[in-house]
Amino acid sequence: MQTPAPVEYAKASSIAEAISLLEQNGDESRVIAGGYSLLPMMKLRLARPDMLVDINGIAELSGIRIEGNEIVVGALTRHSEILSSAILFEHYPLFRQAEHVIADPIVRVRGTIGGSMCQADPAADLSAIGSALRGTAVIANSGGTRTVPMREFHTGPYDTVVAAGEILTEVRFPIRPGAGSAYEKVERRAGDWAVASAGVFVVVSGGIVTDAGIGLTAVGADHYCSPEGEAALIGKAPTEDNLAAAAKAASDSSNPYADQRGPVDYKRHLASELTLRALRRAVNASQGA
Fold first, then answer.
1. Which residue from 93, 116, 194, 236 puts its CA 20 to 30 A from 216's CA?
2. % of the chain beyond a pLDDT of 70
3. DSSP state, residue 107
């Protein structure tokens, strides 16, 4: 059985202490919460940190609340809390739809939104949702905090803008009155990583799409989103033809690669079909159908 390389461990009781520990140990220190993304990579020796900083005791990193016109989700918030959140379900049901098909109940009890987003796995469900909703990441360091649009947060596979000595503290999602949302996913078996998935929101007002977001995962979409698909729909009536055109634009803007989950053409087809299905459902929800 593969085991991780030896590693030092420290438990932080505050954000300031976590940042101090990360700074003391430099580039080779990593934050750990649920551990379901990091520990498998450590067992494979794909990640070999010298220090693990445990943030599970930092209460201020947990919870879901509304501040002004934003929903604030703490980085330590567990998948199970997102799944059961009345706030998120009221404004963006796609969170609950996605959480139902993320891993299994054991993982959802311990895994966190911050761990998922910072892992930056190309098939991460919540990263696609964050980009679709144009969320904002709040990152803390010894000098204070900085904010980064979720569409700029991921810089590549398994890489983000969170630098050494920094920690993701929360993700903020703007509230959009009248928005409908939906999440569609194809997986090889229950709880598996996506073969492809699409998460969208749509706002329809006066028979016109006034705002929309399209998030894609596992199909090589830059920053997990498709501005091309959104541009093809915003300002137009949500007809079947226009929805299909937006879905095709989303598929065309993706860049999947062939692997054990399927060939490129199949994944492109899924990107289009899943986007179309999600858009239909989101439009119906926005229109009160």
1. 236
2. 99
3. H
Give residue-wise pLDDT tens across range 202-236: 999 999 999 999 999 999 999 999 999 999 999 99
- Largest Cα span, the chain: 61
Question: Can you give the C-alpha Rg of the chain in angstroms?
Answer: 19
Matching CATH number, 179-286, of 3.30.390.50, 1.20.1080.10, 3.40.50.2000, 3.40.50.1580: 3.30.390.50
Q: Is the pLDDT of residue 263 over 70?
A: yes
pTM: 0.94
Q: What is the pLDDT of residue 106?
A: 84
Which pairs count as long-range contacts for 227-236, CB under 8 Å and 24+ apart, including other chains? 227/253, 228/252, 228/253, 229/253, 229/275, 233/202, 233/209, 233/279, 234/209, 234/210, 235/208, 235/209, 235/210, 236/208, 236/209
How do beta strands 29-32 and 51-54 pair? parallel
The fold adopted by the segment(s) 63-174 is 3.30.465
Nearest Cα residue to 169 out of 135, 145, 143, 142: 145
In the chain, where the domains are located? 8-53, 63-174, 179-286
Could you read off the pLDDT of 109-160 as tens digits, one per residue? Answer: 999 999 999 999 999 999 999 999 999 999 999 999 999 999 999 999 999 9
Contacts of 177 (CB under 8 A, 6+ apart): none
CATH fit for domain 8-53, picks 3.30.43.10, 3.30.830.10, 3.90.580.10, 3.90.1580.10: 3.30.43.10
